Amino acid sequence: MFAHDIEVDISKLSFEPFRTDNAQVRDFDCGEPALNEFLCSREVYSYQEEKWGNTTTVYLDGELIAYYTLSFSSLRTSYLDDHYKGFSKLNEYKLQEMPAIAIGRLATKKSWQNKGIGRIIIAKIVDDAVVHSRQSAGLRLLLVQAKHGAVPFYEKLGFQLVKPNRKER
User: Fold this and answer.
1) Does the pLDDT of residue 72 top 70, yes or no?
2) What is the pTM of this model?
3) Which helix (H) or strand (E) holds 67?
4) Half-sphere exposure of 115 toward its Cβ, with a 13 Å CA cutoff?
5) C-beta separation of 63 from 46 below 8 A
6) ∠8-107-157 over CA atoms, to 5°?
7) What number of H helices and E strands is found in the chain?
């Protein structure tokens, strides 16, 4: 499936809430200017302060190697009717939207790309956000707001591309 194995000792990774006083943030480079700039912008601070999203930084032996941002979201059930057979009671419950958590940003430092960091992060998000939250909050979906070039990565992990439905074309 992937051309490379996971080359990181998972036990050495540290997942920490975003801190504004971290000097490594300014030097972070994932190769995507918009993702780099987000960490240094007022936007990331606003996300944290206003609780729009939660950014987590990932460290390996003290080095900032990745980050991701999560927020609460939903997906209209009209998308799910056409794509997913596992939600058989949607019509019975008359839900218009399915509760979800969205990955708004996920970036890995260039020197750590293609070493399995993204897969480790997705596995952690699934475990933390989906498995644990589902027991108490009714969470059913993990959404990704991915740049076009990242779609194949997410598809390899089992995500499915949702295309506009008839109502929202």
Assistant:
1) yes
2) 0.85
3) strand 63-76
4) 15
5) no
6) 70
7) 8, 5
Backbone angles phi, psi at 14, to 5 degrees: -125, 125
> CA distances (Å), 39 to each of 9, 27, 142, 144, 165, in order?
25, 10, 23, 19, 34
Residue 106: name the closest of 46, 57, 73 by CA: 57
Radius of gyration of the chain (CA): 17
Contact 107, 131 (CB under 8 A): no
Tokens (6 digits) for 154: 């997410």
Edge-to-edge strand ranges of the sheet holding 141-144: 13-17, 54-60, 63-76, 97-108, 141-144
Residue with tokens 């990242």: 150
pLDDT tens, position by position, 116-125: 999 999 999 9
